[in-house]
Input
Amino acid sequence: MKRYLIRRLLLAVPTLFLVSVLVFALMRFMPGDVATRMVEGHAYAPTLAALRHDLGLDRPVHVQYLDWIGGIVLRGDFGTSYWTRQPILNEFARRFPVTLELALLTILVSVVLGVLIGILSAARQDSAADYLGRVLAILALSVPYFGLAVLVVVLPSIYFKWTPVWTYVPFTVDPVENLKIMLVPAAVFGVTRAGPVMRIMRSALLDVLRQDYIRTAWSKGLAERPIILRHALKNAMIPVISLVGLQIPLYIGGSVIVESIFRLPGVGLFFFEALTRLDYPVVQSVNLIIAAMVVALNLIIDLSYAFLDPRIRY
Amino acid sequence: MARRAPFPSRLFLAAVVLSVLVLASLVMAAPALAQAGAQPKRGGVIRIAEREAPGLDPHLSISFLTHSYVSLAYSQLVRFPNGPEQKSPTDFSILPDLAEKWTVSKDGKTYTFNLRKGVKFHNKPPVNGREVTADDVKYSLERFMAKSGFRDRFEPVTGIEVVDRHTVKITLKEPYAPFLNHLANPSYCAILPREAEEKFKDFNNPDAVIGTGPFVLKSYEKGVRVVFERNPNYFMKGLPYLDGATIDITPDAAARLAVLRAGKAELPHIWGWISPEEARTLKQTNPEMSITPYKVIGQGFIYLRTDQPPFNDVRVRRAVSLAIDRKSWNDALLFGEGCVDAGPVPCALTDWKLDAAKMDPAKARYVVGYDPAEAKRLLAEAGYAKGFTMPIYHWPGYVVPWRNYYELAAEDLGKVGIQVELKPEEYGKYISTTALGKYDKAAMGPSTPFTEVDDFLFGRFYPELPTNQSHVADGELTKMLVAQRREMDPKKRKQIVDDIQRYLADKAYYVYVPQWPQYVAHPPYVKGFRHHDGYGLGMRLLYTWLDK
Output
């Protein structure tokens, strides 16, 4: 276990290095130029040159990369935004709790819904409940979350003069108000992510329910509920956990749109605005931090398999 | 018996009739008078749903959002009229702001500004409510000219001299008619206190936003909300009426309209703007809402590489202009409410606009006319009887109706034999190449809504400027462009501007497309919020009050 952990941590270093190079290069390949963007249609040549110099964009590309990555590795300095001139790490730290809460609530909604319907579908295979569950899963898979989010915001405002868009309040300030604000976007996002969870849950549980040890449990006269909940569910959860792990980047990516529509001041919105403004240091550093988190979460998920299935050893 | 003199009785009769008329007119006009004379109420906080500004430093950012946000907190030397002061939404006459009066030397090269005495910065550390002096003006102008992306606006300035505590003298290298307009534009030179920069490095930190404007920045939670409170020491006594203003950061356009509908915001935009289409649906869902259309300083055009074939031939450019059916566009997309006579000076810039109707019709038709048969004839005369193919580079992300505009342009030009290949570009590329004149043959898009006519003339037509997107290099025109910005007499300058518009009419350097109105929407209890096309949200809120 210890060796596995060390090996995985060492592997993370080249992974993150490649991510840093890739993100840095992709930003430079993006059409357009941030300095020109900053002065837009008003640009006259002397201003542009001066601005490029101010931003350090007149230096060779490799010097710009080394300056950025060197700051992170040697000093823990993730740089400052071109536009706001504010430290990126401070802004990320301030916004991260919002995105984390949204992601956790979304996972909660998607797992609770997906697992419950998945269990019901598997336990009552080919019944009306199973068909209904499968239809709901396909529907959830088919509806884009951004479309659903806009409908949830706009339709009540037209018909009821009400909209679930509030001004954000942190959980630490007012938990009740915070949950009121966060639950609707989490539900919208979570419902659309529950579809794949339900389908994986159903197929994994059906597979486990046909295994010998379950048949033995039936023959010993155990009731359906303990068989499913105590014996089958734990094993069937492994692919579900894998799926949730794989979906984490999707939760971060999706937060860009959801935060924008529900005016939540999270990392997704921070990243999106930086991308549209070609704010290179913000896009690079936020990407790198999120990549590091995804690497760490994948490791945690891999380690959790050993807990769910004692036969798995590292 | 003495006869009564007839004259007094006629006088008496006239007096009676007059009294009746006056009384009747008073009765009839009572509601209007009551409305006009409605006493503004003090108090209340206006809520505005808007996107986040990229920063708060008015000299480091060129974003209109930044300038709109901080316009609540800062003043300038001079300003544009607002509320009851303005004659129209594009009234850019110059009023005193921090400068109570000013003089211009006879040669137009020296401006002397006398500052109001006793005007104090907001009472926040490290400035702590000290008085504004001429040193602050010199510091702010020099900082703007050193750091702002708009610094070229003050390029003719050669010296700023502090004469005494309340007098500052600015010297220019040549007469420069747009100077006062640029000083009054809230996008340019806000007057800032030096101590705040010394403490906070720049003015992006919310604690550094210390000005002399009508509102004081109380708090800024990034991504959430900006809160302004009334400045109790504002130098215009009794103003503003509002206790405060909040800007609730709302990035999504659909959400901004939804919060207006749901009563969670008074303005869905810093100008209160919604599109004509949104206005129609809002009227249906919220009939109580105040929704008013205004002409705005917008402009859209097809720009052509006039330095290269085929558009170096005026006949081809005229053919392109005659191929565009502006009236049909206006009817189909803008509910007939747009302005088809959209260039070179925008329709809304009424003080400078020379309407096509007042020009020689034979020339004006190349600005507003539609004649596909003549377009074909001109193309044949220029050697393109079988037409040709041209690209139109553009950014497809501009708001409605731009996406339809690109398609309609392609369709109309196709009818006269010019096959258009629409070339959509990513915004970063478009704004840093195509919009600055780096494209092949033709492109299409909107113009920044400037407040100075010089930007639409000198900026668009002076050789070698990046904003001269059509690469115009016309000696005769260039002389007039320079002359209008050096002419300090407004009447004489207007004559030159008129001459430029007449001269440009049949040149078709740019092909202008109809400009749509913007609808200003807010609940009926928002009073005194008069639309103004300048970038000063603070000034638009100065006379605003809430009747509830």
Q: What stands out?
A: The longest helix of chain B spans residues 6-36. Confidence is low (pLDDT under 50) at residues 1-8, 25-36 of chain B. Chain B touches chain A through 51 residues (CB under 8 Å). The CA atoms of residues 54 and 541 of chain B lie 22 Å apart.
